[in-house]
Amino acid sequence: MKIAPWNAAILAGFALAAGAAFAHDDATLDKTPAPHGGQLRMAGPYHFELVVAKDAKASADSPLLVYVTDHSGQQKFATAGASGTATILSGKQKATLALSPDGDNRMKGMGKYAADPAMKVIVGITLAGKQAEQARFTPLAKTGER
Predict the structure, then answer these.
(1) Where are the domains of the chain?
(2) Cβ count within 10 A of residue 98
(3) If we measure between CA atoms, which residue out of 32, 130, 121, 136 comes closest to residue 78?
(4) How far apart are the first and last CA of the chain?
(5) Model pLDDT for residues 66-83, shown as the tens digit of each residue
(6) Parallel/antiparallel/unpaired status of strands 106-112 and 39-43
């Protein structure tokens, strides 16, 4: 069976799109070294890198950082004028931290949360003039458990 050249081009396009989607799934991102030692997740056209305090205690304020880049990690997106929240679920505790711009492509929040391997974090960020994007993290789980 012979495939017409235009059909071959369409099939190649589908194969590339499928490969690109797979390249950014959570399992693949968990194996990708993050520039700041955090966990990477896709959020629409962006990558969010979440960095939590590994020694955070529920009794004291601890920082939470989110870096915003493109899918290759090369282009930084300015966070000036952005807003966001991080909802942290750790054990039976829930904390919601307001995120505000903190440097070129970073958002920062401070709040009381306990570092726990089972913790889950939902980050929502709206960059200036853009639609809101959201990502879910398990920042302290071992790679195989994420």
Answers:
(1) 5-145
(2) 13
(3) 130
(4) 44
(5) 999 998 888 999 999 999
(6) unpaired
Rg from Cα positions in the chain: 18
Question: How far apart are the C-alpha atoms of 64 and 56, rounded to whole Å?
Answer: 10
List the 39-43 sheet strands across, edge first.
39-43, 46-52, 61-69, 106-112, 93-101, 83-90, 120-126, 133-137
**pLDDT tens digit sequence for 90-114:** 988 999 999 999 999 999 999 999 9
**In terms of Cα–Cα distance, which of 123, 93, 122, 97 is closest to 110?**
97
What is the phi-psi region of residue 81: left when phi exceeds 0, alpha when psi lies from -120 to 50, beta otherwise? left
For residues 30 and 7, which has the higher predicted lDDT (pLDDT)?
Answer: 30
pLDDT (0 to 100) of residue 70: 93
Alpha helix stretches (DSSP H) within 24-111 = 26-31
CATH, range 5-145:
2.60.40
